[in-house]
Amino acid sequence: MGGADPRPLVPVIVGATGVGKTAVAAALAARLPITVISADARQVYRGLDIGTAKPDPALRARVPHLGLDLVEPGERYSAGRFARDAAGWIGDAFAAGRQPVVVGGTGFYVRAVADGLFREPPLDARARSRVAAWADAIDPAELARWAGRLDRAFSGGGRQRAARAVEVALLTGRPLSWWQQEARATGVMRPWYIHLTLPRDELLRRIADRTRAMLARGLVAEVRALRARGTADDAPGLDGVGYRETVAMLAGALPEAELEAAIVRATRRYAKRQETWFRHQLRRETGSESRETMVWSLNATGSPEAVATEIHERWARVSAPVSTSSRGR
After folding, report:
1. Structurally, what CATH architecture does the domain formed by 119-184 represent?
2. Where are the domains of the chain?
3. Mean model confidence pLDDT for the chain
4. pTM reported for the whole predicted model
5. Three-state SS letters, the chain
6. pLDDT score, position 153
7. From CA 173, how far away is CA 250, in angstroms rounded?
8. What's the CA gap between 139 and 160, in Å, rounded?
9. Which of 40, 121, 233, 285 is the most buried (most CB within 10 A)?
């Protein structure tokens, strides 16, 4: 009989943009001493605050948040780098007597830290440079088409992710999705997934409300300041939803009167891709004693406090030790 898995069980709160993950985590912090590990590929960028719905300073002062403001816009930050960083953050949280909780909507980041990194084959540095130069020179939509041709599992996500898919496929002869599936190492934790969901009409309403609020808070001014500092319009960070449309407006390619509607449309499409990813990519196991991977879909229509109470109560049951006498013979 194999021994018990020594990896710690860690809650992972996921869901589409606008579903309320940050608010639920904040409410959970009132019930449990937690450290939030942000799994959001855009919140890693300094200065991208409004358009990424980054937790505000008051919340961050009350609840430790890690994974925010790590690099400047334009610098690349990969899922692999996130997984390595997050492993340290998780260990530090436990050492401080706090419960780490991974929170985010970037599926590749979540999977990298929860399920483990794949063992990447060595790639020739000069060949990588040539591929990178080619990828930087073509239109993002064309780059995404190439990524889809080379890796049928490619699901989008911006220039950086498309370039990575192309690079791995061309230089190894196998698509990135193959490496992620076949050459995966063991993750640093056992994930307990809490998949927050909303009825479609409610999610669309929240997306529209949040977009309007972001514009009112100064999203356009935030992007204008980044461009004034010399950040390229297609730099990693500015190629995300909300920023991409704002850049187009500031560059004269989109009428200002159409900006809000354009962001709402793009955010809806992004939320749909996220939901598809979470439905199909989170591994599901059944059985009362299955703790390797568990997925709990939770309707987040109620208040953040009510949703956090449900999570806290269920966490007490999920994380309770299983006595040998309660196991089936």
Report:
1. Orthogonal Bundle (1.10)
2. 9-117+185-326, 119-184
3. 88
4. 0.79
5. CCCCCCCCEEEEEECCCCCCHHHHHHHHHCCCCEEEEECCCCCCECCCCCCCCCCCHHHHHHCCEECCCCECCCCCCCHHHHHHHHHHHHHHHHHCCCEEEEECCCHHHHHHHHHCCECCCCCCHHHHHHHHHHHHHCCHHHHHHHHHHHCCCCCCCCHHHHHHHHHHHHHHCCCHHHHHHHCECCCCCEEEEEEEECCHHHHHHHHHHHHHHHHHHCHHHHHHHHHHCCCCCCCCCCCCCCHHHHHHHHCCCCCHHHHHHHHHHHHHHHHHHHHHHHHHHCCCCCCCCCCCCEEEEEECCCCHHHHHHHHHHHHHHHCCCCCHHHCCC
6. 84
7. 40
8. 12
9. 40
- CATH superfamily, region 9-117+185-326: P-loop containing nucleotide triphosphate hydrolases (3.40.50.300)
Q: Over the Cα atoms of the chain, what is R_g? A: 20
Two tokens at 153?
A: 């599992």
Q: What is the pLDDT of residues 288-306, one digit of tens each?
A: 444 445 899 999 999 999 9
